[in-house]
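User: Okay, second chain of the day. Same drill as before: sequence in, structure tokens out.
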Amino acid sequence: MKTSQNPPIQRYSTTAIVLHWVLGLSIITAFAVGLIVEDMPLSPRKIMLLNWHKWAGVSILFLSGLRLLWRLTHRPPALPGAITQAMPAWQRIAHHGTHYLMYLLFFVVPLLGWAYSSAKGYPIVWFGVWPLPDLLPANKELAETIEPLHGLAAFTLIGLVVVHVGAALKHHFIDRDGLLARMRPGR
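Assistant: Same drill. Structure tokens below.
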């Protein structure tokens, strides 16, 4: 809660906020579709959902590139001093480590999915309009190696998302330090 002694919390830019939420919701949705499709028998519906999952993956890769470019060219607001001082060292390390790993996985997960699809011999036609080049030649053995790596990376990313959301909710409901307001949509 803001008092007369505490300066107002500096917010992220509107562009950063939009990229954050669109990318976050896209990742969660693509992950859920990937889980649903995993156990479905082969059918037109499964093929449709697999294509959607691939389109989402390519879109996530594109959005991740935009988000990283924005982040590199627009410095985010610093954590407020009072929050930084109140955080134990392990929380500061976890804060930065989680963010770095999420950024890395924003790229690794869709690239592994694209590589798997290529190695499996299934082309990606983004939104059914733009054929993308294969990252690898078709190779069944390689596809079988890549598939579990894609899944492991996706589960790791979702685990980090859960940690990220949990930390944000802790700051909002337990610490009541206003940290969540920096990335909340609206004013």
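The CA atoms of residues 122 and 155 lie 23 Å apart.

User: Thanks, on to the next one.
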